[in-house]
Design goal:
The structure is a homotrimer of 289-residue chains. The first copy, chain A, has a single domain (32-288), classed as Alpha-Beta Complex (2-enoyl-CoA Hydratase, Chain A, domain 1), CATH 3.90.226.10. Helices cover 47% and strands 12% of the residues of chain A. Chain A is built from eleven helices and eight strands. Chain A has helices spanning 16-19, 66-80, 112-129, 140-146, 174-184, 186-195, 201-207, 219-231, 235-255, 257-269, 271-288; strands spanning 32-37, 41-46, 51-56, 87-92, 152-154, 160-161, 199-200, 212-214. In chain A, the strands form three sheets. In chain A, strands 1-2-3-4 form a four-stranded mixed β-sheet, sandwiched between helices. A two-stranded parallel sheet of chain A has the order 5-8. A two-stranded antiparallel sheet of chain A has the order 6-7. The B-C interface holds B 11, 16, 19-20, 149-150, 181-185, 208, 211, 229-230, 233-234, 236-238, 240-242, 244-246 and C 165-172, 174, 177, 185-187, 189-191, 193-196, 272, 275-276, 279. Chains A, B, C: This is Dodecenoyl-CoA isomerase.
């Protein structure tokens, strides 16, 4: 069973015929079929319902490493090209966590070329996913969630979600910011990003960072239920609508993509930032011991 | 008496003298005078208060047909040129409904020229009204409401309001979207438009789609009361402020007006969309029998 | 003790070393040191905490006169250049009020040159402060508050906050509007500005115009507490984040600064506006007698 998890509802290249067939087939009852699996991501597809479940499986905390990001993006692309798939539920195979966010070790002690490659992978993932649903945890996990259509979080005061970059001495890029502002509004986003806030589940619901809280054991069924509502809308109209809603934010990143990579590389390569990250990594290690 | 109705508060070309005269004359007590009436819209003006009441009267559901839209826009223009009028309350003469929204029959089985003419009339109405108050019902009714300054809805769980285009397999244009985002924020608008949600009265209040719920028999008096508060602000300052608040959204439509018409015509002329609308019309007919 | 007050948390040119030193020194315990004081503004700095307290002291109501604005901007600049200062709490030395807002006498019966000079001073103050915390009262007081990072208001039903320009027959400029929309959202801002609403403390909290209400005697300690949370985030990352959040609004004013001054001078010089302001001033005088 997935941990604290999340789900995603994507609308892509939908078979137009289906749109005219009335409501979609029921999601329940269909036997799951294993589709494909790599070292960090596992994908199952419920053929009847047209819904895939993607699980991150990179213990201990599903850090968004270059490897995981790349595998994630490729898996999503495969699903987009699969006509049997109309939506995807995003969750975790690691207990009690969706993802700890961007992998800090990819941003420390490496070459500028590596930083650039990593950041590009983050951008790719986001651009692919910025039409999908829930993550829960620091930074990258939250970013994945913000890209989804709907966010469900386990009702547990120990779980939290947010973009905590400033706590590490680094800065969320403008497109993280844009996605956050679109979700919780400008004022809440400003406070959230300046302080690097991690919201406990109940606060996350209040501020609008997640849409629903459910007991941990009901995450998957709740996601399936909401997904059914989403897929009851004609795919084509919903897809155009979604793309209209997100066009401005997507276009801004596309326009400044290279500058954003350069900016990241330059910032992260600074001695002061590298020292700051090293301290953070050491603190994390001490916590584990 | 009006049904589920709505009201609007417009600020236009105000006699500047009045602004300096202190608070406006009381709205109550003034005898109503019939101003003018056409087949689909009826307008009364309370001379003393400077407030007009516009009632849609196109049974069974006040569908926004080309005829109604044209008459509506002309009536609004007349009121703008009438120095005795400072505000307008928008409501319905048909019981239990403000408007069912855009008339689907205008979008089905007609020529491209007709589609273009119809869409232009929708744009005209919106541009005129995007300085006014409440509608309640699918699509067009909601659009009228979103263009107003304040929205009052009858407190009845059977009544609903929203932009349900996607449910019909069509897509709300960007200026519907802009007006909705301005009213309920980006996140709520995204969910609302993707799913084509129709909000029951209490949900509409919660999400901010309407500003106030009152018992059906008090719609008109509540509208009159709020209008008095609106007109207590100096017209000139209020008008400039309103235009500053809405400039960006209005300018975007003005800039892309022709492209928006072409886009609508092309989309609505597709075989798949025409089939989708036909199915919807047939379902509506079956419901009536 | 300060009255109804406010506080501000600024992030500027932070000594980078400090960012790497872990959490900031405790705010409590450090003895305050008088830094500098002019006729309208008094500044104290808690050396240990790196926090300055700025108090407006221009009885009876701390009107934002040309003199106060100029002194305020200069004081803020001094603090920015002071490496011992990392944040500033903004409050009032006049009991029961933070500020009554822009000084109307600066906008009435003077020369166009004076109006231009005054408006430029308002812009300067705003541009400097649009990285800082609470005001409470009509117009200018609210504008100062909107420029801060966090707003604390005394829990007293007699106190209110808002931008009431339209009530005076004048119009809030687009950058007041932008800051308000960023804080409370577009819909609430539209209603607020059109009607020139002054929100009682509890409503101000509800709409999001202030972040916290506390008993009057706890204003300063609450501000100190929140400031500690703010300063626990690495200065550098927080500062870049803040500037990213506010860049669009700041850039818009910078781009249209001269046109905005000309626009103000032309508007305020009109006979009708001057008469309107005179009436308002006379009403204020009568209230005092």
């Amino acid at each position: 069973m997935a941990g604290r998890a999340a789900w995603a509802c994507r609308a892509w290249r939908p078979p137009l015929r289906r749109r005219l067939d009335g409501p979609p087939r029921a999601l329940a009852g269909a036997p799951p079929r294993r589709l494909f699996s790599g070292p960090a991501v596992q994908v199952e597809l419920q053929e009847g319902a047209g819904v895939a479940v993607m699980k991150l499986k990179s213990p201990p905390v599903n850090s968004l490493s270059l490897e995981l990001l790349t595998e994630f993006t490729i898996s999503l692309e495969k699903l987009e090209n699969d006509k049997a798939c109309r939506g995807v539920i995003l969750t975790s195979a690691v207990p009690h966590i969706f993802s700890a966010g961007l992998d800090i070790t990819e941003m420390h002690g490496k070459s500028p070329e590596h930083y650039a490659e990593f950041w590009k992978a983050v951008q790719e993932m986001w651009l692919k996913l910025y039409k999908s649903s829930l993550g829960s945890s620091p930074a990258g996990g939250c970013l994945m969630a913000l890209s989804c259509d709907y966010r469900i979080m386990a009702e547990n005061p120990k779980y939290s979600i947010g973009l905590n970059e400033t706590q590490l001495g680094i800065v969320a890029p403008f497109w993280f910011k844009d996605a956050l502002v679109s979700t919780i509004g400008h004022r809440a986003a400003e406070q959230s990003l300046q302080l690097g806030l991690l919201y406990p589940a109940s606060d996350a619901l209040k501020v609008g960072l997640v849409d629903q809280l459910v007991p941990e054991e009901r995450l998957q069924s709740a996601a399936t239920q909401v997904m059914a509502q989403w897929l009851a809308t004609p795919d084509h109209a919903r897809q155009i609508t979604k793309s209209m809603m997100r066009k401005e934010v997507v276009d801004r990143l596309l326009k400044h993509r290279d500058a954003d990579i350069q900016n990241f590389v330059q910032f992260i390569s600074r001695d002061s930032i590298q020292k700051s990250l090293q301290m953070y990594i050491e603190r994390l290690k001490q916590r584990k011991t």
